[in-house]
Design goal:
Blueprint: E1 8-9, E2 34-36, E3 38-44, E4 52-58, E5 61-67, E6 73-77, E7 91-93, E8 96-98, E9 105-106, E10 112-114, E11 130-131, E12 133-136, E13 139-144, E14 164-168, E15 172-174, H1 178-184, H2 188-193, E16 204-208, E17 213-218, H3 227-233, E18 242-247, E19 251-256, E20 263-271, E21 277-286, H4 291-322, H5 335-345, E22 349-351
Antiparallel strand pairs: 1-16, 2-22, 3-13, 4-5, 5-6, 6-11, 7-8, 8-9, 9-10, 12-13, 14-21, 15-21, 16-17, 17-18, 18-19, 19-20, 20-21
């Protein structure tokens, strides 16, 4: 699908009542038996050393993930198509993976290239499923979908095509579905009640950019009704900068900060086996042509970005740890949340049932 065929604003009524749906009535939203087709983080890059193989699982799929002698990463279905031994018990042999049980060898595309007991014969045509994996931002990502990737791993829109520095944060777990974490960041009401921001600062306008990418941009202006408001307003020509870009209902980028210095944050989430959220936050900053800026200033900007994320995470974590999410009573003020659901529901599900157990 061409990106420009789906670009446009999403209109959700800000007046009147909206019909609530149960989890079973949604195609994707808050479901634990499927996710939207797309890119998901699999593991941090540092967890997989050269010439090593480790087991991994995501969306009900068990995998053997290995890094070859040249440093490339590959992921195969976990169980050998010969007798079902777990391939992560094997060893890396150059650019391939050799099963421990009978030493069958598989390349990164899942093709069996060697059956030792049949040296005198051409190996039978045997293969196992290989998954598309790529490395970015200190993480190994996997494409969950039966077709070839339709797009690249998400990147912060303002950094697309530019040089940047990043810092991968610590692994975290939230006691709720990834979709709940995502909608929290566009929930205008909670910024007033949980984070004590003025009630009319945020007005999140949704815009669908592609079939998998939706953007929420604040159009609210800082009210200059007191000394603090007047001071903050001096840093913004118009609206308060707060913009979020979401993909697959699980990966998002945040832009915030004054007009002269935007801060960039990404949160990469995935659905855990227990139906909760596992994720990483990644802080970014633009790379400068000045080496001293990159060495001295940019680390401070990255630290500032992390602190901003931690500030909002503190109050939100209290919610995530105890919530039993049930969207029983949608109201007009939930227009951004409803737009998120509307966009996610149009994406294609990828079933979370194991096909290689």
């Amino acid at each position: 699908m061409q990106a420009n065929s789906v670009v446009g604003r999403i209109f959700v009524s800000r007046s009147g009542q909206h019909k609530a749906l149960t989890r079973e009535q949604y195609n994707l939203f808050t479901r634990t038996d499927c996710v939207a087709i797309g890119w998901y983080w699999l593991m941090p890059s540092h967890a997989l050393r050269r010439n090593k193989v480790i087991p991994a699982s995501i969306a009900g799929r068990e995998l053997a993930v290995f890094r070859t002698s040249s440093g490339e990463v590959a992921a195969l279905d976990a169980y050998c198509p010969h007798m079902g031994a777990h391939l992560a018990e094997g060893k890396v042999d150059g650019e391939q993976l050799r099963c421990f049980f009978h030493n069958w060898c598989f390349d990164g595309n899942g093709n069996c290239t060697d059956i030792p007991c049949q040296k005198a014969k051409a190996p039978r045509v045997v293969s196992t499923r290989a998954w598309v994996v790529r490395e970015r931002y200190g993480l190994i990502w996997i494409w969950l979908g039966d077709e070839a990737p339709a797009e690249d791993i998400p990147i912060h829109p303002e950094l697309n095509g530019k040089s940047y520095q990043y810092s991968l944060g610590n692994f975290f777990i939230k006691n709720c579905h990834p979709n709940v974490v995502m909608i929290n960041a566009i929930d205008e009401q909670h910024f007033h009640t949980v984070h004590n921001l003025p009630g009319d600062v945020l007005n999140m306008e949704p815009r669908r950019l592609t079939s998998s990418h939706i953007q929420f941009k604040n159009t609210g202006i800082v009210p200059a009704t007191n000394v603090i408001g007047k001071l903050i307003a001096k840093f913004y020509a118009r609206e308060l900068t707060y913009k979020l870009d979401y993909w697959y209902g699980s990966t998002g980028t945040v832009t915030l900060g004054p007009d002269f210095m935007h801060l960039y944050l990404m949160f990469a989430l995935r659905l855990s086996a227990s139906g909760n959220t596992e994720g990483y936050a990644i802080a970014f900053t633009r790379k400068s042509s000045n080496a001293l800026v990159n060495l001295l200033i940019n680390p401070l900007l990255i630290l500032l970005t992390k602190l901003a994320g931690l500030y909002f995470a503190q109050g939100d974590t209290r919610i995530f740890n105890t919530i039993k999410f049930d969207f029983k009573t949608p109201i007009a003020a939930d227009h951004a949340v409803l737009a998120f659901i509307q966009h996610l529901e149009k994406q294609t599900p990828f079933e979370c049932s194991s096909s290689n157990a």
